[in-house]
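re: that chain from earlier
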Amino acid sequence: MNYGPKILLIKTIIICAGFSEKMSRETADALGIKGFPMKPIPMRELAGMIRSILDRVDKND
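^ sequence. v structure.
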């Protein structure tokens, strides 16, 4: 069995946050966080972000 994609999905991180002086998109990128939407985020926008990230994971297969 090939568990590679499943393990990669576990490592995919999305953080939804409100205002933070300690966390920024730049910091999130440096930490390898794949998505950093700021709250409030419309459900369609969050769903689109998740789909986009999962599509990138599938292409790296």
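Residues 43-59 form the longest helix (17 residues).
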